[in-house]
Design brief:
monosaccharide binding, Rossmann fold, SIS_PGI_1, Arc Repressor Mutant, subunit A, 3 domains, glycolysis, five-stranded parallel sheet, EC 5.3.1.9, glucose-6-phosphate isomerase activity, binds 6-O-phosphono-alpha-D-glucopyranose, alpha/beta
């Protein structure tokens, strides 16, 4: 017999349960326990947010700080683009991939995808989710770690001679992809291979990367546009090219995203899953991100989803200023990995300790055809977690998908893109620029590295960090930290003293 609490829970669940027939996605935000009064109070701000979203999709300068439009929704609905030219450009980019695919499949067995941030996180999620679609083996070089490159090149199907190098950088100037590309080019040269014949670039026309690819006669250059941000580029060729090379059905992926976009244009909040998510985030975090969002996909193939959501949310919402220039230091912290695994780790704190987060559990009803009843163990882990959090009064949201195939995943990613855009409107921040990101943090230290090695080589004398600081004009702490690294790499000899101040360093070898 249902108790009064059960009936109350049931009423709240039914009132806010949102299912979209077009995508099969269902959203349950009842665990947020939003009040009727809150929903009523937010009707106005939400209406304004939805109106701003209509203007954004019509091509207004929704990113005023960079004087740009925001066009990732047009990527899956080119007819929405504010000009026929833009729409035609998007379709041409699809045609360019379709033409390239058979050539690539014939010539290559592997892909080395070089990119970082939004030029890697989304593509990696797609290629991991659909790793067995029978296409090329796609490996990601998304960090400046030579060991990571060695690992990616080890046992590369077909070896370097059958490998396509796909360099993705919207701006075309991000240092790490450049450094990694030069390193990979060295590996190709050492193997006696013509790197340019194996290389393609995806970047904004006219960028340094585009010019470099043209000058060095790389195989192809695929287009990006300034009105697509890195964190919202997964439905551009940034995601479509690697996914297509991996053998995925990228048309279904775009159709799923477009279907969710249609659903999240609905002005009725309770029928708009993105609106419900944005309102839940606002309610749970007081519009200040006072609770951390923990994203937990209950599928191994979606284990990289939290990293994609993390960049999308935190790079969009984590802003010092709001749109009127007030200092707000906004944000919404995201972490997570996968269920059920995480239930046996940090869930202890989430249920029992600090009450400063909310979970968003993401499950799929189906996996691979004919999978065992273990899939029910997995899904019941999700359901059990919802109950367990409710029991402790800890907020938990749930998103369920029919499966993790292209259409469903397109819908899921589009849902989060729209929810972030609506939430940003509710808290009045520009979600589409990233003034806090410095692409060039390593460059001054690399320059100092060379100065230190040159100085030690010229002097030949054991030298302290402070003396090198004076000689190079850098703080002694910075110089000492770098010297300790160079000593550990046997690039300088370290004569230890009692502490950092009286340790001396001498050059031992030419710059490695
Ligand atoms: O694609 P790129 O221009 O190389 O940029 C790669 C990344 O650089 C920065 O970190 C931006 O904040 C990210 O949004 C972007 O995805």
């Amino acid at each position: 017999m249902a108790t009064a609490d059960d009936r109350q829970e049931w009423a709240g669940y039914c009132g806010l349960h949102c299912s979209d027939a077009g995508t099969g996605l269902s959203l349950d935000v009842s665990g947020a326990r939003m009040s009727e009064a809150f929903l009523a109070d937010m009707a106005g701000p939400l209406s304004e947010a939805l109106t701003a979203m209509v203007a954004l999709e019509a091509g207004t300068e929704a990113n005023p700080d960079e004087h740009r439009m925001v066009g990732h929704y047009w990527l899956r609905a080119p007819d929405l683009a504010p000009s026929a030219d833009l729409g035609a450009g998007i379709r041409r980019s699809w045609d360019q991939v379709a033409t390239f695919l058979p050539v690539a499949r014939e010539r290559y067995r592997s892909v080395l995808h070089i990119g970082i941030g939004g030029s890697a996180v989304g593509p990696r999620l797609l290629c991991d989710a659909w790793h067995d679609r029978g296409g090329l083996a796609v490996r990601f070089l998304d960090n400046a770690d030579p060991d990571g490159i060695d690992r990616a090149l080890r046992d590369l199907p077909g070896g370097l001679e059958r490998t396509l190098v796909s360099v993705v950088s919207k701006s075309g100037i991000t240092p790490t992809p450049w450094q990694v590309t030069h390193e990979v080019e060295r590996r190709f040269r050492a193997a006696g291979l013509d790197f340019a014949a194996h290389a393609v670039a995806t970047t904004v026309p006219g960028s340094d990367l585009a010019q470099h690819a043209a000058q060095h006669r790389w195989s192809a250059v695929f287009p990006l546009w300034q009105w697509v941000g890195g964190r919202t580029s997964v439905t551009s060729l940034v995601g479509l090219l690697p996914a297509a090379l991996a053998g995925a059905d990228t048309e279904a992926f775009l159709l799923g995203a477009a279907a969710m976009d249609r659903c999240t244009r609905n002005p009725a909040a309770t029928a708009n899953p993105a609106a419900l998510l944005a309102l839940s985030w606002y309610w749970l975090g007081g519009g200040r991100g006072d609770r951390t969002m923990v994203v937990v996909p209950y599928r191994d193939r979606l284990a990289l989803l939290p990293r994609w959501v993390q960049q999308l949310v935190m790079e969009s919402l984590g802003k010092r200023l709001d749109r009127s220039g007030r200092v707000v230091r906004q944000g919404l912290t995201v972490h997570g990995h996968k269920g059920v695994s995480d239930q046996h780790s940090y869930f202890q704190q989430l249920r029992d300790g600090r009450d400063d987060s909310f979970v968003t559990l993401i499950g799929t009803h189906r996996g691979e055809s004919g999978e065992s009843a273990l899939a029910d163990h997995l899904f019941c882990g999700l359901l059990g977690t919802l109950e367990a959090f409710a029991e402790r009064g800890r907020p938990a949201l749930a998103i369920t998908l029919p499966d993790y195939r292209e259409h469903a995943l397109g819908a899921l990613l589009a849902l989060f893109e729209r929810a972030v855009g609506l939430y940003a409107e509710l808290v009045h921040v520009n979600a589409y620029h990233q003034p806090g990101v410095d692409k060039h943090t390593a460059l001054p230290l690399l320059s100092l590295r060379q100065k230190v090695l040159d100085h030690l080589t010229e002097s030949g004398e054991p030298t302290t960090a402070e003396a090198l600081a004076d000689a190079t004009g850098h703080p002694p702490v910075t110089v000492h930290r770098l010297l300790e690294h160079l000593a550990a790499r046997d690039l300088v000899r370290r004569d230890p003293g009692r502490g950092p101040a009286d340790t001396r360093y001498t050059a031992v070898a030419a710059d490695a």
